[in-house]
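Weekly modeling sync, notes
Attendees: S.R. (lead), two postdocs, one rotation student

Agenda item 3: backlog of single-chain predictions. S.R. asked that every request posted to the team notebook include the full sequence so nobody has to chase files. The rotation student volunteered to paste the first one in as an example of the format we agreed on. Action items at the bottom.

Example entry:
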Amino acid sequence: MIFLKHHRNIFIIVLASILCIAILCVATPWPSRWLTLPLLRSESPRHVDVIVVLGGGGHKGDDPLPMQVKRRVEKAAELHTAGFADTMIVSGGLHKHSGVMESKAMQSYALAIGVPAETIIEEDRSRNTYENAVLSKDVMTERRLQSAMVVTSDYHSFRACAVFRAQDIDTVCVPAAVSLSPPERMKAVLREYAAVLYCWVKGYLR
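Predicted structure, as returned to the notebook:
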């Protein structure tokens, strides 16, 4: 009986510890922020030929852009206004779940916050980060643009810039702030680790 009681107590302690860790992970920002660090690439902005803003999903309704995508567009607009590039590519095709054309929604938001229409180029065919890079390079090659500042969310910056560099694009990584709740951020970060592994296996990274 003493043996069984001892093991029951250990089981309760272990179960309570796991529950506390799970609550900590979803209720506070610190675990996801710590896990973000290996995924983060943040470099000093410098003058480039073009700023490339990456899409990240869409919502049905009057406000089609998720907040983290708005933050990407805002950061790109800030860099454009500061004179780091004269041209901006908004990269993202049709989002299959919402039916939102990401590039169009990003362009509309960029215009709303003051980016001149003539400086924005739409890349409206890409469906993932790899296609963001390949199809943005097509646009750049057509317009004889060689260097790019890639703007995306912090947890996405390592993979995005590694994929762009694998396309022989002179790339600068500038992450945007992220507006996600702790559970949403944790989900995004864990999904990103899986995406990094997938891109590494496929040979998409440099």
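Discussion: group reviewed the output briefly. Residues 2-27 form the longest helix (26 residues).
Action items: rotation student to repeat for the remaining queue; S.R. to check formatting next week.
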